[in-house]
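Posted in: Protein Modeling Q&A

I'm a second-year student putting together a small comparison for a lab meeting, and my supervisor asked me to include a predicted structure for DinB family protein. I've never done this before, so apologies if this is the wrong subforum. The sequence is pasted below exactly as I got it from our records. If anyone can share the structure token output, I'd also love a short note on what stands out.
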Amino acid sequence: METHTFITQLQDRVQHVKATVQSEFLPLDAAALNFKPQPASWSILECLEHLNRYSRFYLPAFEKAIAQVPAAGSDEVVKYSWFGKKSLEMVNPASAKKHKTLQRMNPHNSQLSKAVLDEFLQHQDRLLQLLSRAATVDLNKKALPVEFFPLLKLRLGEALEFVVLHEQRHLQQALRVKASASQPLSLVV
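Accepted answer (user: helix_wrangler)
Welcome! Here is the predicted structure, written out as tokens:
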């Protein structure tokens, strides 16, 4: 896929994520945002805090990479490494396979407020700005360390797509939590 099309698709996805958070979660009260379908599950705020933790790592890394990566044309084809493909497969929202998260990225049982939503939306605005800037650089350059193992590097395009897919995956999770909160409770007698 050409860089221009690739970036446009990622921007559309981020806009959708942002709009969904604004329409589905901003109107909710703290109790609904902290509701857990089961004790081991994440709440809506925990899903978004998990994404905030990733954004705190990746957004500055994108900023640095975009500043250092050489320019390229918008007709350049975005390529994938084996590791990049595996990483994207792991966070694909269409995949039902669950993965354990790193302890430092796991917000389970955190005391969270609506400030998580504000931070998340700020991250989305920054990501959109970075995507616009990324449209002019070589997305095939290996430039981004992987959060859990910095010696491994993803190509810039792979890392951008990874973050967006990861957000979509956990947004779906948060929407499932919201839906389960609105289900009537059934009593077993």
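A couple of things worth pointing out for your meeting: The beta strands are 142-146, 149-155. The chain has a mean pLDDT of 88.
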